[in-house]
Amino acid sequence: MDSLVSACFGTIDESDSDMKILILGDASSIHIQRWVEAVSERGHSTTIVSQDRAPDWTCPTQVDLRYLPHSGKIGYFLNAIALRRILRDIRPDIMNVHYASGYGTTAGICGFTPTLLSVWGSDVYDFPNESAIKRRLLIWNLRRATRISSTSEVMARQVGRLVPELPPPYITPFGVDIKKFAPTVTDHDQTNQIVIGTVKSLAYKYGIDLLIRAYAQLLVDPVVLDAGLSNKLHLRIVGTGPDRLSLEALAVKEGVSNRVEFVGAVPHSRVPEMLQGFDVYVAASRLDSESFGVAVVEASACGVPVVVTDVDGLSEVVEQDRTGFIVPREDVDSLVSAMKSLILSAPLRKRLGQGGRASVQSRYDWDASVTKMIECYEEVC
Question: DSSP 3-state assignment of 62?
C-alpha cells in the first residue's frame, strides 16, 4: 500500500524555518476548536483542515481554515488527494491528526511526515472490534504516523495492545481552563437545595438511568429522611441524546419527575455555570473504558466533589476519598451510598471539592496541557 501511495502522490519536501502546524480533524468539535485556538495564540502558524463544516464556530482570523471537498465515510478515502494539495501549498512542519480511524485514514493514505496522530477513544476501543478489515485499517493508520498521542494513560495502553512495536504514546491531557472552571462565590450551604448533577450525552452507555434510580432511592433513604434532607435534594441532568424520552419516562416511573430537571444541551461556554450550580457531580458510566473524563475534571476544577464508576479513564482522573468516590459500575446501591455520604456532610463535600480543585491545578491545567502538546510537536519535528 505504501508503494501505491507513493506512486499516486509522490513525495513532499518539508523543509522550512518556521513552526507551521496543520491540524486535521472535525472543525465542528469544541475540543479541536480549543486546540486550534490555543496553538494559534501561542504564536504558531496554524491551519485547520476538515471535511466537517463548522458554521457556528468563529474561527480566529489568524487561523487558516480549509474544507475538504468530500464528506461522509467515503470522504476519508477520497479527500487524500485534496489534503495532499493543501500540504504542498502550506508545507507545514508537522501535521497533527485527530481521530485514528476516519481522519487517520486520510492522513495514512496521504503519507505525509512528520505526523502526530491523536487518538480519541472510540477510534481505538470500538472501531477495531467492528470487523477484521477495520482492525487492519486502524493498525495501518497507527503505524503510518510518526508518533501517537493520547489524552489518558489507559488509552495509551490500548494503543500499545494494538501496535506493541510502536514507541509509547505521548500523554497529552485535555486540560481545563482553571480561570473559567472555578468554584463559585455562592455559598451552597446557605441555599435551600442540594443539587446532584451530571453533564453528559443521554445515551445508555453513560448510565443516566442508573443515576435516576439511585436518586429515587436516595429520596426515601431512612437516614436522609431523618436528617430532613430529602426535600432539599434536586437532580439536574445537562445534555441531550437518543435516550432522553426513555429517561424522562423512567423519572415518571420512579416517582421523581417533579424533582428531576432535564436541562438539555448547552453551549460549552455555559458548562462552567452548570457545574458551579452542582453540590455533587455524578458520572455513572457503564462502559469498560472511557478515553478521558473531561466533564469530571471540569467539575473538580469548579470545586465540586465527584462520584464516578470504576471505568478506565474516569477512575484515572479521580483520587478516592481525596477528590471524590469511585464505585463499581452498574451498582446502584454503591451509587446511593457514595451520594448519601456527600449530601449528609457539608464538610466532606468541601474537603473533596478543594482536593479536586488542587488536583486539577497540578495535573490538568489547560495552559500546561497546551505546552505539553507543543513540546510533542517540537520533538516529533
Answer: coil
CB count in 10 Å sphere of residue 258: 8
Distance CA 76, CA 78 (A): 6
Query: Domain 2-174+366-380 class?
Result: alpha beta
Q: Name the CA dihedral angle for 345, 348, 353, 359, rounded to a multiple of 10 degrees.
A: -160
90-120, pLDDT tens digit by residue? 999 999 999 999 999 999 999 999 999 999 9
For residues 285 and 313, the answer to whether their CB atoms sit within 8 Å is: no
CATH class of 188-363: alpha beta
| β-bridge partners, 282 | 307
> Residue 207: enclosing H or E segment and its boundaries?
none
At residue 185, does pLDDT exceed 90? no
Strand partners, 62: none
Residue 101 has φ and ψ, to the nearest 5°, of -90, -70
- Is the backbone peptide bond immediately before 347 cis, with ω within 30 degrees of 0? no
For residue 231, pLDDT beyond 50:
yes
Residue 255 CA, chain-centre distance (Å), reads 33
The DSSP bridge partners found for residue 233 are 194
Dist CA 331 CA 196 (whole Å): 18
| Mean pLDDT score across all residues of the chain | 93
The whole-angstrom separation of Cα 77 and Cα 54 is: 21
Number of H helices, E strands in the chain: 16, 13
Helix intervals (H) in 111-235 = 122-125, 132-144, 153-162, 208-219, 222-226
Q: How far apart are CA 98 and CA 94, in angstroms?
A: 13
Give yes or no for a cis peptide into 114 (omega within 30° of 0): yes
Do the domains at 2-174+366-380 and 188-363 have one common CATH topology?
yes
Show me where the domains of the chain are located.
Answer: 2-174+366-380, 188-363
Which of 1-15, 19-33, 141-155, 304-318 is predicted least confidently? 1-15
Residue type, 158: Q
Question: Could you tell me if 155 and 313 are in contact, meaning their C-beta atoms sit under 8 angstroms apart?
Answer: yes
Name every residue whose Cβ is closer than 8 Å to that of residue 214 and which is 6 or more positions away in sequence: 282, 284, 332, 335, 336, 339
